[in-house]
Amino acid sequence: MTAMLVLDILLVLSLLSLATAALATNDARRSVILFMAFGLVLALAWGRLLAPDVALAEAAIGAGLSGALLLTAVRDQAHRALRSSRKPVHERGRANLRVTLEWTVTLLCIALAGLLAWALAQAFDRAPKDTLAQAVSANLAISGVSNPVTAVLLNFRAYDTLLELAVLLTAALGIFALGPARPGHRAAGPVFDGLARWLVPALILTAGYLLWVGAHAPGGAFQAGATLAAAAVVLRLAGRRSVGLPTGHTLHVAMVAGVSMFLAVGLGLLVLGRPFLGYPPAWAGGLILLIETAAMLAIAATLVLAFFGGRPTPAPGVAEKTS
Amino acid sequence: MAETLIWLIAMPMAGAVATLLLPRQSTPIACVTAVAASLVAGTLLYAVSEQGSLSYEIGGWSAGLGIALRADGLSALLLMMTALVMLASSVYAGTYFTKAAARARFWPLWLLLWTSLNALLLSGDLFNLYVTLELLGLSAVALASFGGKFAAVQAALRYLLLGLLGSMMFLAGVSLIYAGYGTLDLATLTLAVEPEPVAWTALALMSAGLLLKTALFPLHFWLPPAHASASAPVSAVLSALVVKVAFYLLVRLWMDVFADLVTPAAAGLLGVMGAAAILWGSWQALRTERLKLLAAWSTVAQLGYLFLFFPVLLALPPGPARDTAFGGLVILALTHGLAKAGLFLAIGIIQQRSGHDRINELNGTAQRLPATTFAIALAGVALIGLPPSGAFLGKWQLLAGSFASGQWLWILVTIAGSLLAAAYIFRVLGHAFGNQSYPRHSVTIAREEWPALILTTLAVAGLGLAGAPVWNLLESGA
Amino acid sequence: MLTAHWLYGISGCLLLALGLRTALLHDMLLQRLIGINVMGAGVFLVLITVAYRGPGIAPDPVLHALVLTGIVVAVSATALALALARRLTAEQDDG
Fold this sequence. Notes:
The structure holds 3 protein chains of 3 kinds. Helices cover 72% and strands 0% of the residues of chain A. Chain A has 11 helices and no strands. Chain B contains 19 helices and 2 strands. The longest helix of chain B has 35 residues, at 320-354. At the A-C interface, helix 1, helix 2, helix 3, helix 4 and helix 5 of A face helix 1, helix 2 and helix 3 of C.
């Protein structure tokens, strides 16, 4: 028990100090790296709090891909955006105003943290009713999967996940609308190329495994999609321009695969006289795997696109077909 | 009938997918989707007026374990307004974006925005509302930056960051609710919630996030640049719908789910912020040089009126008096939505024809674009609150309620705001009706000018002369 | 209430406040964005702490699912924000 307590205190202290350090520094690159470390410690905390599904997603998406995105933004100097808007502080009155503002916001934030913690303590003291978790385990047998988190994500609250895929699609389309991607990286040296040669198949295999295992153990479409995206990012870093990522129309198909499959299943069931996304228990497992596979493709395609930061440009020499 | 609820969400979403997969046919697909989704919204409105509230359990799971969609009179009316504004703006957007490639990129985002608006108005689950808020925020930002002009991208980025901040505050409130009550379903929560710290803190956090999203003074600063720098059809829906659905959610939480918690002091605070929004927004609208900024600042002011209703409603005894005033709030929101969308579309036409939207250089607009100028005049009638517009009925209820509860300050603010609105509208019309000597060529392109004219006519004549059904619907769908 | 609830719950609240302060006050986009992400991490930590029932007891899977959804939404928003920022700096450098 005391060992656990020491671990808890260590985890909490490193979370808080990493977050403070990441937010306090003015060096953008340093800030991002500290934030990635924060994400990894957070993944440990999820593991400690018995949330392995979340730990996997945090490590892959929260720390991994967010970090990669932020690092490329630093490389492209994108963090300078919005900075020029603030006029330099000259007059003493303005500087005083700034200090007052900083103190006010800081005090308000401290008050907010205190209020939230106090309310949370009250909520814990009411001995939380566990009705929803009980309802999940009562209906787990007919949900088509045995991992309760997957059951919630793809059956009981599948509609949330459908909208979440729509959010992902929206972000990708918004990035698309801003213009073409930046030019690719230079070709990597033989060492990295050799590394990529075995790392990429391993990542793809891992993605497939995570997708399959999600039905009964920690894992699922999102972790698998992120791993697949990681494979593409490695290839990209190795200098492959298109990384097997389709351009033009096929890319659109990959991006909307998740939303389309979800809608097709949901509306198909509606036409057959069942509720929207109301899987018949006998088919539930198969339908969930079908949706998850499509979702994994969509997530991987979108995350890679986000990493590229725009519409992929075809390799030189390959003329873009009319789109 | 309950299936209409899910169709209202699935239909625009399927349209978004189809426009993305068939880019060459995207414009006809989008138009068919817009018409079909509007018909479904009309069906729902009819169904709610006949049968009262409707609900639909997604996946067949009971609300709580699963997610329920619900529609009452308030949400059905707002869904119908959303459909009308989106339909008219879709027709206009088809002519606004002249390049086929731009249209093909525009429609999926546009239909995803529509999906999120409908999903938000129908959702009966707190966490699901968080996801719809994010979908709404991201699609609105993507559309606001559409076209990639520097000012638009800059405003969109600020808009995104503040929107995310708002969503996070909202989510913090949601997690507190789950910790305290073990449910996310709004109907279950309405019965379980009690006036205690957990509920107060959660409501405060969620409200703070939503106030940022509805741009209530002093949290309004992001709105004018974002709404004024977007393309015309996008500005129309940002001002008419996107801020309005966040306001709807506030009304839902304050008047419905957490109604037992709301104190006169809290409602009074919202009223004071609303009053400041009216005065400051109208004043800025009067001072600005550009027509689009004027329309955006006018949105800040018009949202203020909606917030004045909070202290007035709370002071009235529950029952017929409060219901009548509540009808006034709804009709004011509906009128503003239709009129402001029409105004932005009309401004878009002027901007495209003359290449600018500087108010001082509008001379001759009435000669060249008579239909569009008339649409602006109609929108002005609604923004000032003159009869026979719906806004007149709404403001009348606001004044009557303030009078009945002895809240004189709101009466003074409403009168001052209306005078300022009259000033900024007549300033525009004065320039627009100014004669210009060179030969007039009043070409009217129906697809371009009709949407604005229809929306503003509905705001003035439709809601003003036929406002009674709104009250009936709110009664039957309660 | 378990010790873990205290420790992690309060840390979640602190992270939320810390992120909020940076998101409001910092004048660099990247730090503001990281601030918002830290805020999100704080809320997620509160949710996962609420889900925790003690060692050896199955935690609440609903909250785990909500956090998974939240993580994907957060990364989508971050990606869009960075793309917008990249567009801005590209134009600033051109002009």
